Amino acid sequence: MTTQPYLKFEQIGMSFRRGQMASEVLRDVNLRIERGEFVSLIGHSGCGKSTLLNILGGLLKSTNGEVFLEGKVVDDPGPDRAIVFQNHSLLPWLTVYGNIAIAVDKVFGSSKNKAERHDWVMHNLELVQMAQAKDKRPHEVSGGMKQRVGIARALAMQPKVLLMDEPFGALDALTRAHLQDSVMEIHARLGNTVMMITHDVDEAVLLSDRVVMMTNGPAATIGEILPIDLARPRRRLELATDPEYARCRAAVLEFLYARHRVPARAAA
Amino acid sequence: MAATARAAASVAVATPVPESSAEIVAFRPPVRPAMERALEVARHVASVVLPPLIVLSITLFVWQLLCSEPGARLPPPTKVVSDAWDFIANPFYDNGGVDKGAFWQISQSLGRVAIGFTLAAVVGIALGVLVGQSTWAMRGLDPIFQVLRTVPPLAWLPLSLAGFRHADPSALFVIFITSIWPIIINTSVGVRNIPQDYRNVAAVIRLSWWEVFYKITLPATVPYIFTGLRIGVGLSWLAIVAAEMLIGGVGIGFFIWDAWNSSRISDIIVALVYIGIVGFLLDKLIAVVGHFVSHGVSAQ
């Protein structure tokens, strides 16, 4: 315990109250993430992954424990923890450009001038290959394109931690692969610290430095953390035959489907 | 105009049909002849315009029949037009006092509506946002609004005359108080229906209270606000005509009252038609502005 970790979850517990019923979603979650790490959170539906992400994002307040980012307690939402939302959450009355500009203007209003902010918006749109659609409104582009804009908006805030809540869940396989590659490239170039929720074992192993596996709720916690020791840059074609990749993949599958099956009849 | 444009477009498409494709599609031409298209457009226009025209003609005809016999209490349409011809033909005359043409009477009334309704819109939207955003404001204010909104416009007039001591501010107040309720109620419903997603986005980029208001709340609520404004503008037009009858001066409401006192029944009927048309146009105006402002973002 000589150095402070970059990001630390300490004894996080979360209960929701509905009238007389209190349901405990998370219990005793402890996790340390270093700067520049890419961490995936994987687990069955309803295991509290999103709750944990929202606590880090500041959208929810944990009932127990604290999250520390660079030694400071996280207690409100902010652009240093930009979120890529599951359902893209674009504002329908703004154009694609406007949806990113609203964030850029707010976050860099004092540090960049107008031209720089415009360049920064366009740079991020190009990063996700949406520059050509900058004047379209969200309802005029496909679901995959909306999510690209959502990712560009989060990246444009230059967050200390990028939070992604099943970012590629709604995309078709090709777009998904392409965006996974883009995220890896961006991660390599900018060294973002990323925390991503996913249901996809391949996605988790391909992108992550560590895969955090959650036990099933209620009172879910971290079951196991699997380090992925694969050299970067990673290429999906080469990894397909890589024994280490196969081992990691098997380990996650084993955790999810052998030791922590979907609790069909487990709940009392 | 749209009909001719569409007909012209179909001509342009119909002319350069390539010969090779003519063979393939010979059993069914891709574009019907221009005449046929024009006929269909004409049929469509007719189906929209003809029914009201027919009903209107029948109404005028029955009215003419009923009121033509000697001793009829109301004038038939032909007599209305001949009696009120001066009023219809010269909307811009101005003989001083309250003896002015229809244009001046209506614009005076519209001016009052513009002021009163603008005030109601500003205050109503602000209160609506407050009520929509704060649970306590809603619990405290909503029951009061629900009771007050049922008070008829003219019931406010004596109170407002007592308060303002002048006819003009009283009339403005009556418009204000009549049209504000639907604006408040619709705005607050709109604010309550803003998706949590938008609030999350605003929270993450740390918009200030004021920025949330004009960058998120207002645009997300615009369709609801305009629903309220449309109802409000209709009510304010109802209110001004009634209020002017009591406070006097130039205005289409007092014009009717004045005509009644001089037994100019035909003038009253013409004024009624004008009032109806203006009310209809006000409603359409707000609808068009709303469509433009909301960029077609629907209320869903």
Salient structural properties:
heterodimer; A: 268 residues; alpha/beta; 6-stranded mixed β-sheet; 4-stranded antiparallel β-sheet; 8 helices; 35% helix; 23% strand; globular; B: 300 residues; mainly alpha; 13 helices; disordered N terminus
Give the helix/strand class of chain A: alpha/beta
| Share in helix of chain B | over 70%
Strand percentage of chain B, roughly? under 5%
Task: Write down the secondary-structure element order of chain A.
Answer: EEEHEEEHHHEHEHEEHH
Order of helices and strands of chain B: HHHHHHHHHHHHH
What does this structure look like?
The complex is a heterodimer of chains A (268) and B (300). Chain A has 268 residues and is of the alpha/beta class. Helix content of chain A is 35%, strand content 23%. In chain A, helix 6 crosses helix 8. With 300 residues, chain B is mainly alpha-helical. Chain B is built from 13 helices and no strands. Chain B is flat, with a radius of gyration of 26 Å. Chain B starts with a helix and ends in a 7-residue tail after the last helix. In chain B, 30% of the residues are buried. The N terminus of chain B is likely disordered. The chains are: A alpha/beta (268), B mainly alpha (300). Chains A and B meet through helix 2 of A and helix 10 and helix 11 of B.
